[in-house]
């Protein structure tokens, strides 16, 4: 069955600083799988995980022990530490979810199995080269419409499935401040491929990907303690990942599944984290829109190393931070290759 | 109110060969507006229009009379003759609809005012340069998500609103043959901008556009009697229009509104019309994906003339038909300028 998957094929990665009571609601959907819990902040804190879940928990001490001098590429006091979980996983698929996200219901009132829908998205092809007006052509009850080239109907492998959020939408701090009460109540019953050459804001609240295809490009950058910026970890990963996926011929989907995002984070705290990003972004987007990777970059690792060079060459002038980030990107790939030796 | 519009701002263009009984169902939505009825086929046939509608009807004799030697650019015995209606209209907006399309209902059971929704789509900006994961950011209850560059939030003028179909989907003949019973029952509650650089299959069953912005690029080509191909009129217009819109910085939306498409056309007849298109298309798409218009093409007319030259230069080798088509594209623009003198 499409979307069905064995325990050996997926890890659920959850970054957190608190007890994982939210897992109770996910029990019917997550209990059969393995969790990687990324404990952020003070490693001496004890995080309680409800009984019955199978998990590994990593804290800062584990990161330092496992990565040694390379540990600096993993952020501290920031949710972006989740990418360490991608590094130590050995599974084909990753589903990562925030601990303030709950099970949503579809319009019929049925609880949505977000994990299953993500896997279904990842197991079916993407169509990045031409837009299908009836959305996902591989879905039951629909197809490619008249005028869709037949040579493109096979599609390409799907690297990423980006899910959405009912209730509290993923807004930046200025929008949060301007629209504190806005809630997303619209269930849009669609999955679509984001076309080749088009960038989008990838949010990590509800995200799945094929680790074998794109894992090395899923680095969440340097955020949190000691860094000048926050809340751009998933954006950075999304831009890098999209450029690499476009180059390698992989697809990126967005849309279903929804989950229920419970609590808006503090907009003033968010503004402090974001504000440099809000204007840096205006230079980053043209960079990612124009970046070009050479043909001999045939793996996500090679693409990512090349990207790090271009980041240093073209973004270093914005702020010294981008030189540090470019170095960390290289360290990340070194760590990836150490923990995931080629051919293994 | 968004989506509201005066009679002086819109024409509804309907190509037909039969009595327009289908208008009864549209009466509450269309009666206050002006219709342009394009009678296809034998001009001596009499087409009955229900009482109370304000319309002009044009048949082949009218086309010949008005366009004289340029009349050959308007197809005969093919719905693509509808573009003559775009030519003689003097309105800002065009809504064109097929005569086998009826009023659809939204999931709450409410009848959908397709015209109003199209106008709303055309009156609000598009966002072709970056994908917004919560779809149309200008819609009530939603916005741009975190990570969407602020410099792009103003959007660009919208040239085209492409609506969809419940019940009988717009499939090509092979898909019709393979899935004769497939019906579209999924109401996807979204409007989105098709990103810059991405082509899509534009269907004219349920289509609106800003005639002032993009009218000259809305030519439906040479189809029907005496031509080697049919059912690619709207596709051709859509590819040309998208390339021109991308160049001029206009947006193209797809999604809502739905209408109810009643009857699948005969797949065997369709196959006969389509079959050359099915393989020609494989060369047309790479052409349109790679076409580039020079900077001095600052109007839709200039873009279209330039496009006609490139069609002749690069597609003429596929079949002599494309040389004829390129010439007809020029004739179309001459006719457009004759009937719509600049500055008028």
UniProtKB/TrEMBL annotation, chains A, B:
It holds the Pfam family RGP. Probable UDP-L-arabinose mutase involved in the biosynthesis of cell wall non-cellulosic polysaccharides. It is found in: Golgi apparatus. Belongs to the RGP family. The lineage of its organism: Eukaryota, Viridiplantae, Streptophyta, Embryophyta, Tracheophyta. The record marks 146, 153 as: Required for activity. Its EC number is 5.4.99.30. Coiled coil: none annotated. It catalyses: UDP-beta-L-arabinofuranose = UDP-beta-L-arabinopyranose. The keyword Lyase does not apply. This is UDP-arabinopyranose mutase. One of its GO terms (cellular component) is cytosol. Glycans are attached at residue 146. InterPro entries: Nucleotide-diphossugar_trans, RGP, RGP_fam. GO terms for biological process: cell wall organization; UDP-L-arabinose metabolic process. It comes from Flemingia macrophylla. It comes from the Eukaryota. Keywords: Cell wall biogenesis/degradation, Glycoprotein, Golgi apparatus, Isomerase. GO terms for molecular function: UDP-arabinopyranose mutase activity. The keyword Glycoprotein applies. Its main location: Golgi.
């Amino acid at each position: 069955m499409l979307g069905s998957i064995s325990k050996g094929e997926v890890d659920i990665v959850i970054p957190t600083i608190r007890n994982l009571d939210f897992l109770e609601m996910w029990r019917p959907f997550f209990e059969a799988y393995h969790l990687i819990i990324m404990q952020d902040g003070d490693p001496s804190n004890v995080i309680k995980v409800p009984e019955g879940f199978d998990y590994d928990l990593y804290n800062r001490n584990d990161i330092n022990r496992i990565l040694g001098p390379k540990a600096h590429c993993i952020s501290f006091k920031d949710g972006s530490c989740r990418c360490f979980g991608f590094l130590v996983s050995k599974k084909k698929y990753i589903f990562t979810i925030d601990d303030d996200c709950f099970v949503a219901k579809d319009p019929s009132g049925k609880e949505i199995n977000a994990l299953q829908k993500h896997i279904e998205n990842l197991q079916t092809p993407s169509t990045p080269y031409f837009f299908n007006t009836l959305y996902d052509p591989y879905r039951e009850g629909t197809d490619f419409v008249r005028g869709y080239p037949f040579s493109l109907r096979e599609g390409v492998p799907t690297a990423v499935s980006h899910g959405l959020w009912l209730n509290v939408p993923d807004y930046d701090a200025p929008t949060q401040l301007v629209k504190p009460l806005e809630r997303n109540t619209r269930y849009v019953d669609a999955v679509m491929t984001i076309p080749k050459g088009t960038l989008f804001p990838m949010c990590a609240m509800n995200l799945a990907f094929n680790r074998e295809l794109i894992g090395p490009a899923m680095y969440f950058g340097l955020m949190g303690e000691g860094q000048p910026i926050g809340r751009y970890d998933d954006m950075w990963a999304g831009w890098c990942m999209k450029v690499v996926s476009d180059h390698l011929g992989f697809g990126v989907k967005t849309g279903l599944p929804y989950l229920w995002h419970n609590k808006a984070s503090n907009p003033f705290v968010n503004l402090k984290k974001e504000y440099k990003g809000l204007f840096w972004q205006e230079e980053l987007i043209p960079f990612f829109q124009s970046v070009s990777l050479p043909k001999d970059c045939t793996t996500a690792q090679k693409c990512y190393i090349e990207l790090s060079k271009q980041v240093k060459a073209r973004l270093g002038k914005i702020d010294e931070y981008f030189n540090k980030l470019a170095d960390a990107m290289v360290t990340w790939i070194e760590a990836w290759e150490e923990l995931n030796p080629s051919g293994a």
